[in-house]
Every structure is written in structure tokens, then in C-alpha cells.
Here is the input.
Amino acid sequence: MANELMCTCRKHLPSGFKLHASLHVPLDQAHVTVLFGPSGSGKSTLLRLLAGLDRPDEGSIQFRDETWFDSARGITVEPQQRRAGFLFQDYALFPHLSVQRNVEFGARHPGKAAEWLTRLGLTELRSRLPRSISGGEQQRVALARALAAEPALLLLDEPLSALDAATRTRLRHALRRELVEGGVPSIIVTHDRIEALALGDWMVVLIDGRVRQIGPLEEVFRHPADVAVAEAVGVENVLAGEIVARERGLATVQVGATHIECVDPGKTGPVFACIRAEEVTLAPESTAASSARNRLAGRIRSVVRESALARVELDCGFPLVAVVTAQSAAELHLQPEDSVYAMVKATSVHILAR
Amino acid sequence: MDWQALWLSLRLATLTTAILLIVGTPLAYWLTYSPRRWKFLVEAVVALPLVLPPTVLGFYVLLAIGPRSPVGALYGVLTGGGLLPFSFEGLLAASVLYSLPFTVQPMAGAFASVDRKLVEASWCLGISRVSTFRRIVAPLSVPGIATGAILSFAHTLGEFGVVLMVGGNIAGVTRTVSISIYDQVQALDYRAATETSLLLLAVSFVVLAVTYALQRRVWALWPTS
Here is the structure.
């Protein structure tokens, strides 16, 4: 049994929008897959096709050893039989049922509902109606309801977008933990790159109804397949590391053998250190005084000019991308194999907890 | 006061409402959720009794249930020579047709106003379409279903033209309260006609007041978001 999700689908919407998506997600490596793209790129449409709520015009959907849809063989499996839990953007809690009844609604065993009510800390809210609890709580109820039905796959449509900014930031980390602990492979739709970074392992980039790139999250951010993907994800260095020290408002992240200083995010442990390529400055030597906390010795791997800008890939013990103006690149005579120093302000290092 | 006619009308209205709830629910559901393009034709047929003169409707029903029609012949075979025209059963069949839009339209409106995502959420939890209707759509449509039932009941209670065409005027079998009022006026018994009319007026007013109260959720039967 191949533990993977394969989907090749065409769907024309009445609005004229055409989705022509082809994707392959290895579920062993991708516990949480982010379906990422700008607004109107067809992410939610694709998610509905996977859930069986809409039917593709043609194509096929294969989940593990089950065929969910195949237009050539005339197979359409109803949403009830797919066992794909779906989290709606506004949660779609049943308004006439208490929190407990909502969670029990699709539970095959009563014990499962009780288990998820407890695990997501909803026990005290069990007799409340959905409209009387907060947005963050509603999100947890929706998640508990979906997980209590023991789905084989969990589909989440912008699960954090209905929340206010403060709650969203607070719940991002919690949501990833719950999804990983839940042990159900998940696909999350989002258009927010920070959210994508905080939640996902694997990333599918969808632009204008087509899958443009698919792969491990850091890989997609580090090596966008083309300009459209680079624009969508933002040129970003995503460095997996660990916070090893915190002192006087600054923290030290160890990335490979290198230490990077950043503003103390208030926690320790494994993190992603994200640095926008535009915020990396390059200098031929380290003697010039600068306020930047990080000076990283590196070797130039490649220099690619894109109109007014030059994209410089460095090896600093880990790959680092800098975007500088074409004029600077010319004045500094940046060439492959040259040694340079990359300078990054501590405030330009954005830390995302894992 | 013609208590026999009043009792007959109440029995007719109750049975009509009960049958309409059973027949009207799947019809309203189909009209709400079916993707068929030609469903507007069915909608038009269901709404016909709203605009058709009762005598016209009654005339066609009379033809349709006559002993020579397939329906009438089948009924004769099943009941051992029974006739539908000028019987209580024939009257019941006509009333169901006549009040169909009064049940189906409020119900379909209520079903349509249930958030589609709730239905889809239930499907994705593995719950069948029938169970989803029973556990989600129906409870959230209680005011609409109640409105449909009440309007059908009131409409049947006051019907005249269809009854006259299909049922005639047989005491205890087809003489409803509105036919009785007509009789009383014909016999110049204005006192009895006044009493009966007043009763019908009161019943109709109460029924409509309850209906509008339900729609405004005066008593908030069900919490909806």
C-alpha cells in the first residue's frame, strides 16, 4: 500500500475559472501539507474536490489504495465513504447542538468524542452552544469534531483566518502540535506565508489553478521553481535550527555549526529562523563597522541577475540567498567562488517555533 | 351552530396537514437541493393552486378521481366498489392538492436557509444524507415546517370551491363548515351563519398570528446562529 495521495483533476467553474491541478503527496514525509497560493488560485476548490463535496470534470483521485474518483472508470466515492474530515473556514458548527453533541456527532465510538474533548481542553465547555464560545474555542471544537470521527485524512480550509490577529498567532503553534499529535495526515489551505511556515512540513504551491511546485517546505522557500512561485512565497531563507542561548533580549540560534543572533522570541527549542533575502547585505570584508549583529563568512555559489536585482546564493555552512541591486553586485565584482561576508541584523531574523 | 360540519372540517384539516407533512417534506427537499434544470416546472405545478380558481382545480380533480379514471378505477378495485367523488376520501385527496403550496413553499424556504456548509460538514463526518436531514436540516427548519403545517391546516379549514365541486354537500360526509355557512345564509338563518363565521374568523386570526410569531421567532423555538 503506497502511503500517498495522488490527484489529477480538471474543473471548470461557472465563473470561468479553470483548475487543472496535478499533485502527489507522500504522506509518510508530509504529516502536514500546506496548500499555498494567492487568493483566487483555486486552493479551496481543490480541497472541496478532495473531500468529495464537488466533482471534478475529469481526472482521478487516489488515496492510499482507495480510488476516490476516476472519470475514466466512472468511479465517484461519496464524501461519507471517503472519511476525509473537513474543517470549514468558519468552522460550520451545528448551532442547535452543544459542544459535546457537536463532537459526538460523527464519532464512531463514544470514547473517541470524550477523548478529544479532553485532549483539546473542551471539557468545561461541553454543555455550551457554539455561538456562546470564542472563535478560538470554536476552532478547537471543529477540530475535535473532525478528529472524533477518526478520519483517514484531514482537510483544513484556512483554519485560522476567522480569528483575530492575536488569537491567530497564539493558536498557530498549538494547531500544528494538535495535528501532529492527532496522527492524521492533514492538508491545510492558506495564503499566509507565515502560517504556511508555522504549520507545514510539505508544501504545494498553487497559482492560477495549477500546481507550480511541490516539495519539502524549506526546499520550496529556498529554491522557488520559477518567478511566479518566488513572488508568491516571497524570497526567503528558512533555516532549521535550535535556540541554544537567551541573554539580555537576544537569543542565539544554532544553524548547523553557525550561531545566528536574533531578538529573543521568549522560548527555546527547535525553530525556523527566517531571513528575507532582501535583508541580507553583502560586504567583501568584515572590517567595516556595522550595526548588524550577524556577520557570516561565506562563499558565493552563484550570481543570477534579474532585471535591476541580482540574486546571490551563498554557502555559509548552510545555503543563504541574498538579493542585492545589480549595481552593487557589479561594484563589488561578485563572482562565484569569491569569499564574502553576509550581514544580517538581529531584528531581521524572524523566529517561528516548531 | 353546525357542530357536525365543524368536526368534519377539523378532521379534514388535520388529516390533510398530516399527509402534506409526509408528502411535502421530500418534495420540498428535492426542490431545494436538486441540481436539475427543469425543476422550475415542478415548482410551477406545485404553486398552481395559489392562482387557479378553486372551481377549476375541483373540476379536474373530479375528472381525475371519477370511476372511469385510472385513479378512481384503482380505488374501486381496492375498496370493493368504493367511489371517490362525493366521499370524504375524495375530498381529502382534493384538499391535499389544493394546500400543497402552503406546505411546500415555507418548508423549501426553510431548508434553503440552512447553511449549506452545515450539511456538507455532516456528510464529511460520515453521516448519510437522510440522517443529515433528520439531525441537521429538520431541527434547524422547525419554524418553516411549523409555518407550512399551520397554513395548510387553516387553508383546508376554510376551503369552499374545491369542496363543492368534489364533495358536494352531504351532511357528515362532505359538508364542511364553510359549506354549512353557505347553507345557513341560503336558509336565511343569519344568526347561525354569524356564529359560525365568527368562529372561523377567530380561528384564522389565531392561526396567522401564531404563524407570524413563529417567523419572527418571538419564542425562539430553536437557537440559530
Q: What stands out?
A: The radius of gyration of chain A is 23 Å. Chain A has a mean pLDDT of 89. Chain A touches chain B at residues 51-53, 78-86, 88, 90, 92, 94-96, 105-106, 108, 129-131, 145-146, 149 (CB under 8 Å).
